[in-house]
Design brief:
With about 425 residues, the chain is of the alpha+beta class. Helix content is about 15%, strand content about 25%.
Length: about 425
């Protein structure tokens, strides 16, 4: 599987960064608990790293922000069959917008017997199935819902079944929400994003598997949309209907809630199991994860601010004395098997083609040398592949979470 230009550039940057550490950098890594020339990490830091979550999130461990009354995945087996939410009963309609029609040769509808069923989707999968890694994140929540390997058929392959001719500008889609217009959750994409994969992104897919297993109802099964670079509201669950339209604007439910519906994933860092107390002058192990957004992650940095510090450290703490943490390498155990082939992984070995992998997450760790007694606040941030520090270049909440984390830390009694 070829390495994309973004991956190649990131690999080169990472290599130059570590080669540039030199002797001084090696000593610094020793101070922060990194393993240099085969030396083991500080045992307290190693214990913190060993306690980190797996890179892949088991399907039943994803955080859930599903909507509906009742939420569709809570329906019993008979109700899900009646609603078309099983692989045996699922059908997808692809129709022209009745108010702003795209010109199609044929619509896929239940009434005329041409709606796409799960068997038909699997026939398309025999030739077109793709897999890719993606962190699923809500636009307004400060932690990912989970990271997985998503498998499906590119949406464009289904779109072409209608043989569109002209006046197609946007693709609208929604899932099952109890046939209640008030509960309808919908999203949309420009048709150009469906037909083409810019910037070496994976395709938008009709997803039916997560981590090699059939999508469960909780994860939006039997079929959902997954948009690789987007926040979760674009990846509609329980997909039932696609509308091809000549309209040019979005109809996303999140847009109606005062959000920027065209935002790709941002990069940001956060702690995992952060220290709340520490002994004076004792080394402090700190671990966390970084969401690797559309602009990548080249560094993760940590700063422990004395609460008595009244200095002006610039906008978003730009001038604070940040210290580099260690971005941990690819894990020896991913949490579950990586099904191959998967975009971004070597076809034979299963090793990632670049690290950190864009649109996923990476873990980081550092061992702070210690602090005198007092009250402190722990901050962490990412530096992207263009050298831009979190929360820039898009600091506004409505385009996705990227606020710098504040964790209270008390040193001493």
């Amino acid at each position: 599987m070829p390495t994309d230009p973004f991956s190649a550039e990131h690999t080169a940057l990472t290599r130059r960064y570590f080669l540039g550490l030199g002797a001084a950098g090696a000593a610094a890594l020793g101070m922060t608990g990194g393993s240099v020339a085969g030396e083991p990490r500080h045992p307290r830091l190693q214990a913190a790293i060993d306690a980190l979550e797996p890179w892949l999130t088991p399907a039943d461990a994803f955080r859930d922000v599903s909507r509906g009354t009742p939420v569709p995945h809570t329906l019993n087996d008979e109700q899900r069959q009646q609603a078309g939410l099983t692989r045996e009963t699922w059908k997808l309609e692809v129709i022209s917008d009745p108010d702003q029609p795209a010109k199609l040769k044929t619509e896929l509808t239940t009434a005329n017997g041409t709606a796409l069923d799960f068997a038909g989707l699997m026939q398309l999968a025999e030739q077109h199935a793709v897999r890719f890694a993606k962190v699923m994140t809500c636009l307004n929540i400060g932690c990912p819902l989970g990271t997985g390997i998503w498998e499906g058929v590119p949406l464009r392959e289904v779109l072409w079944l209608t043989q569109p001719r002209e006046n197609l500008r946007r693709v609208y889609y929604h899932g099952f929400h109890n046939n209640d217009p008030e509960q309808l959750f919908q999203s949309s994409l420009p048709v150009s994003r469906v037909l083409e994969d810019p910037f070496d992104l994976p395709p938008v897919i009709l997803c039916y598997k997560l981590n090699g297993e059939w999508l469960t109802p909780e994860r939006g099964g039997p079929v959902r949309v997954v948009v690789p670079e987007a926040y979760g509201f674009k990846s509609i669950k329980w997909l039932k209907t696609i509308v091809l339209s000549n309209l040019f604007y979005a109809n996303d439910t999140y847009g109606e809630k005062n959000n920027d519906v065209d935002s790709p994933l941002k990069s940001f860092a956060a702690t995992l199991n952060p220290p709340m107390k520490a002994d004076p002058d004792a080394a402090i192990p700190i671990t966390g994860y970084a969401q690797v957004g559309i602009s990548g992650v080249s560094k993760v940095q940590v700063w422990i601010q004395n609460d008595a510090d009244t200095a002006d450290h610039g906008r978003y703490f730009a001038d604070a004395p940040w210290l580099d943490a260690d971005i941990l390498p690819p894990p020896s155990n991913w949490g579950s098997e990586i099904p191959l082939p998967t975009l971004g992984f070597e076809r034979e070995s299963g090793r990632p083609l670049s690290w950190p992998m864009r649109l996923t997450k990476v873990h980081w760790a550092t061992l702070h040398p210690g602090l005198p007694a007092g009250d402190y606040t722990l901050h962490c941030r990412t530096i992207d592949d263009r050298g831009i520090a979190q929360p820039m270049p898009r600091p506004f909440q409505k385009s996705g979470h990227a606020a710098i984390e504040n964790v209270a830390l008390k040193v001493g009694e």
